[in-house]
Amino acid sequence: MISILPESEGNVIGIRASGTLTDGEYREIFMPAIEKAIEEGKVARLLFFMDDSFEGAEWGVMWDDTKFGIKHCNDFEKVAVVGGPAWVEWGARLSGYLMKAEVKTFPPKKLGEAWDWIKG
């Protein structure tokens, strides 16, 4: 499940992921929220928080995320990845080499610090 965090504003968007992400949620919630943030600020700042119930994503999400990332590789200024399994941190670091955004990972207990960084 994907939800938009209430701290989001303008080109700063916070996403909470819990359970299993579905392709429909990704297309209907995540993609429009990011595209709106890009339109409002020209570049987006994304905080992606995976809570303790996060289990992963459907394969369709992985494919859509790859295409979306290629299309918008220059449209992000900062990306904060909070929580998630160990492979998520590895993937976040790799994506930092593929996009011009500054990418940083945080453990769940540092969610507040991640918000400070993404908004700063």
Summarize the structure.
The chain is α/β, with parallel strands linked by helices.
List the helices and strands and how they pair.
Blueprint: E1 2-4, E2 12-17, E3 20-21, H1 23-41, E4 44-50, E5 56-57, H2 59-71, E6 76-83, H3 86-98, E7 102-106, H4 111-119
Parallel strand pairs: 2-4, 3-5, 4-6, 6-7
Antiparallel strand pairs: 1-2
Helix pairs in contact: 1-2
Task: Please provide a written account of the structure.
By secondary structure, this protein is of the alpha/beta class. The chain has one domain: Transcription Regulator spoIIAA (2-Layer Sandwich). Helix content is 45%, strand content 28%. It contains four helices and seven strands. The strands form two sheets. A five-stranded mixed β-sheet has the order 1-2-4-6-7, with helices on both faces. Strands 3-5 form a two-stranded parallel sheet. Helix 3 links the parallel strand 6 and strand 7. The longest helix is centred in the N-terminal third of the chain and has 19 residues. It is globular and about 30 Å long.
* General shape: globular
- CATH C-level class is Alpha Beta
Number of strands: 7
Count of distinct structural domains = 1
Largest sheet: 5 strands, mixed
CATH topology: Transcription Regulator spoIIAA
Rg to the nearest angstrom? 13 Å
Class by SSE composition: alpha/beta
The CATH architecture term is: 2-Layer Sandwich
Largest sheet, spatial ordering of strands? 1-2-4-6-7
Give the end-to-end Cα distance, rounded to a whole number of Å. Answer: 28 Å
**Low confidence ranges:** none
* Count of individual helical segments: 4
**What order do the SSEs take from the amino end to the carboxyl end, as H and E?**
EEEHEEHEHEH
